[in-house]
Here is the input.
Amino acid sequence: MFNVETIRKDFPILHRQVNGKPLVYFDNAATSQTPQQVMDAIVEYYSNYNANIHRGVHSLSQEATDKYEQARLTIQKHFNAKASHEIIMTSGTTHGINLVASGFTTLLKKGDEVIVSALEHHSNIVPWQMLCERTGAILRVLPMNDEGELVMAAYADLLSEKTKLVFVNHISNALGTINPIKQIIEQAHAVGAAVLVDGAQACPHLKPDVQALDVDFYVTSAHKMCGPTGVGMLYGKEDWLNKLPAYQGGGEMIAEVTFEKTTYADLPHKFEAGTPNICGGIAFGAAIDYMNHIGFENIATYEHELLEYATAQLLEIEGLKIYGTAKEKTSVISFNLKGIHPYDVGTLLDKMGVAVRTGHHCAQPIMDYYKIPGTVRASFAFYNTKQEIDTLVSGVKKAKMMLS
Amino acid sequence: MTIKAIQEDLIDEFSMFEDWEERYQYMIDLGKTLPLIEDAYKTQDNVIKGCQSKVWVHAEMDDDKVVFTADSDAIITKGIIAILIRVFSNQHPKDIIAADTDFIDEIGLKEHLSPTRANGLVSMIKQLKMYAIAYQTQLN
Here is the structure.
């Protein structure tokens, strides 16, 4: 039974004050809060079995290795990957994208084409631009419309036998649009192109099935889904991961080293050089367990309710415009007040204890499309309440009064 | 008036506000009323891009004093600029170079001058000082 008041008890931070007011945390798309269960996993790790993994013969190292590999299995099961070695532990989404982009340096040649969507975060644009600079491949852009949806009619025109790679986010961080990634993947595969999906914004809201999607690469970060920062995962189809060269050299990733030649370890270790974020990986597993315990169907239903409620309330404010009105969207509202800079609204809301994000959200091309410097973004999680939305709405009204 | 005297005036003025709302309303009103820079100077060369808001700064010499004009696209940033200009403009370059901005702390606006705030204000102060250093070199 989904009960938000019970859930809120799991999150100590939600009970603190900011600027003398009860915290209203609506910056979930930037990072989610951490439940006690995940913090307990972190404390337990350092209290009971902190040791370096994979190499030790002693019991503590074995225990830590087992827990870490158990987390990998939890991640594999959650995303429904065929094999656990298709899950590469990373430091986060950006790391995963860079790993793949770097690997494609040897697989692309001059004149090849790669397609990026207009809705991307800078982290899913810049590594590919760098890849194009290195290889002479051409970066093409899948455009968006006024609602913040991808123009799928244009996609078919962009695809050709020259297309080698397509990268798109599952959900836009700036607008909340849920992209039709299944269709994007199908059409890309029809011309022989691989697809990387940035799932950082999707994983807090839904449960992706990488086999059903038939996606080639899927990346995400733990800290968007109740886990700690500095850890994430890259899913890659085994064939692709075998084709990509090793990313970073170091310990863990080797089979045999002589000064003449090194042979690399098998998957997933080939891509996991050095001592990993062991505690982070284990806590990532705990976060996935926690979210599955709440249930993604419950989360989706409740967050949709919050989104509808907040949208209706905010639209009653005269001069407030919402950016991103896609039919399929998650609990993210990007908005501006007419003639008022988002920074001013965010600054005043902070004084009232309401944490929102302002600015371009690392998605400048989207802001350029709308010809705005940025937006105020309120993003809701399953532990937020309608009362908190009321606080946001009255805060926005007050900010408008002060700034007009 | 010396920079120090102006800063003390500001601390006095701000001590009269009872809460954050009065303080911010005052800054917003400052931001709204002051014409801070001529449009001709709102050029690419004069812009300081923060991640959050933009700031334009222009400097010129009037006798042996530096006159600053500036602007921002965000009104609270503009209000703080108005305060900074009141402190630093129309002063001798050597006084500008020597001045500190500790008063910002005392008037309760410290968070706006944090280097991580990315509103362009920290870079703006650096820019004011750079202008002062350049003009001081000319005077020498």
Q: What stands out?
A: The beta strands of chain B are 47-49, 54-62, 65-72.
